[in-house]
Amino acid sequence: MLDLKYIRNFSIVAHIDHGKSTLADRFLQLTGTVDQRELTEQMLDDMALERARGITIKARAVTMHYEHQGQMYELNLIDTPGHVDFHYEVSRSLACCEGALLLVDAFQGVEAQTVANAYAAMEHNLEILPVVNKIDLTHARTDEVCEEIEQSLGFDAADVLRCSAKSGAGVDQVLAAVIDRIPPPEGDLRERLQAMVFDSHYDEYRGAITYIRVINGSIRKGQKIKFLRTGSVHDVLELGHFRPRRQPSQQLQAGQVGYLICNIKELGHVHIGDTVSTVEDSALPLPGYEEPKRMVYCGLYPSDGENFEELREALQKLAINDPSFEFQPETSDALGFGFRCGFLGLLHMEIIQQRLEQESDVDLVQTAPNVTYEVDTQDGRRLTIHTPQDVPDAGEIEEFRQPVVRVSFVLPGDYIGPVMKLCEDRRGKYVRTEYLSPARAMVVYDLALAEVIYDLYDKLKSATKGFGTMDYELLGYFPADLVRLDILVGGNRVDALSIICDRADADRRGRAVVKKLRKEINRHMFEVALQAAIGSRVIARETISALRKNVTAKCYGGDISRKKKLWAKQREGKKRMKSVGSVDIPQKAFLAVLESGGEK
């Protein structure tokens, strides 16, 4: 049995690209957890997509042993992503720790996600160790950044640790501070078993591999355990630590972090935030995690209708690896059978789509993303709207409400003007401006989430030449003048192209969509009308002219009445074809509309 006072559980939180994965690599190297020959960059980012994009997507855990002042300590690092969309992963990791390293880039300074993650760690009552990374950069502003941390987050600049994760300078002091300043876990080895499920992933051969943090008691190989939320009972076939690959052991005790393999093939048996206990004398369930709020929805369809079951299987496997993603079957007149999927944000949606295509080799068709709305009807019902097709007729709507978020922009003072204009153009409501240092400021606006998810991040990077960062939190649902914009092709509404937007934007967006469609849809043998409409009122129209076949080519001279007869016959045929013919809408037309959806 290991004494609890020699265990430390901590995570590293930072804004994206501040060196979090590199610092984790140095920890693995310094503690000898990974052999020098096996050490690669971004060791804990083992997903191909993480390496390709240079970001952490999935939280990872690793157990390290480190000798400090003649005593061996067990350090459990639970790695976290940095992007705003994966804030849910960060909160799950923090719930299993007693401390957190708050990493700040010595050149870029305090950014939006730095502030958000610091407050998240404070909410979990963690011991926070501020660390300035990349101090070896020639243009590092180490002292200024320490002052920024003091001014914006309230930590004493003298207590800020300094290191360079790339060169290894100061990393041993950071490890020593983790042992000295982060408290050991609280727990009782003699109590009934209580373990928190904080993550899981699906293995083709072993089933669900469950990540746990043991709070009280201990768990042994061969023991019967019970998942309290689902009530399912399983035998522990294997348990152990991540170092960083799985290393089996005979038992896990209070304070330790590790994994369980119970041959769980049913994906519904593992719930993140569940409590694991013994079968005979179960402990009380631990307070779980707040359910993640899916903010962005879109339809995913197989490009070949026969691959529907393959797509369902791929989505089920992905759902156990990423519990913040959800899906349910839906059908579309234009696209056939598919799934309505909910995501935490636009990057999350992009990552899921790429993982499906790369890991499961499924060709996808994606509809335009939209956020969740609320509608109060005249007869007193409250509807949650995930898709434009769910919006009732205008006469039935009492009040239409949209999600509003508070967006914090952290940027150099020179760019405050362009960012304020960006927000004003999106009908944003100004809240406040705070100066973090003489050269850096935080501007706060309340904006509709629909305006944020489409292209605000890209426009922010353009307006601030790459220096601006943003983070947002949901305030709630507020009334707005919203309408459902329908797209009609040949007089028929195409449900996959419908969007919900502000009435003031409807004309512009309707015109943009039909213009795009006109370029993308091929000409047919009959005239095709493209219309954008709100209810029965058409607000924009484009026409794709018919292909013309020269039916009089075979007439060599003779009376003109022969030609007139052929032309009349052709007119009748085109009229008949227009009433029964169907318009083929290619996949690239849906993608073109998706791109035009967020144009400003």
Topology of this structure?
Elements: E1 7-14, H1 20-30, H2 48-53, E2 61-68, E3 71-79, H3 87-94, E4 99-105, H4 112-123, E5 127-133, H5 142-153, E6 161-162, H6 171-181, E7 194-203, E8 207-216, E9 218-220, E10 224-227, E11 233-235, E12 238-242, E13 246-249, E14 251-253, E15 257-261, E16 275-278, E17 296-302, H7 308-321, E18 326-332, E19 336-343, H8 346-359, E20 364-366, E21 370-371, E22 373-377, E23 382-385, E24 397-412, H9 416-425, E25 429-437, E26 440-448, H10 449-463, E27 469-479, E28 482-489, E29 492-493, E30 499-502, H11 503-520, E31 528-534, E32 537-544, H12 560-580, H13 587-596
Parallel strand pairs: 1-3, 1-4, 4-5, 5-6
Antiparallel strand pairs: 2-3, 7-8, 7-16, 8-15, 9-14, 10-11, 10-16, 12-13, 12-15, 17-19, 17-20, 17-21, 18-19, 22-23, 22-24, 24-26, 24-27, 25-26, 28-29, 28-30, 28-31, 31-32
Number of strands: 32
Q: What does the main sheet amount to?
A: 8 strands, antiparallel
Number of domains: 5
* Relative helix content: 25-40%
Task: Indicate the proportion of strand residues.
Answer: 25-35%
The name of the CATH topology of the largest domain is Rossmann fold
Helix and strand content put the structural class at alpha+beta
- CATH architecture title of the largest domain: 3-Layer(aba) Sandwich
- Report the principal-axis shape: globular
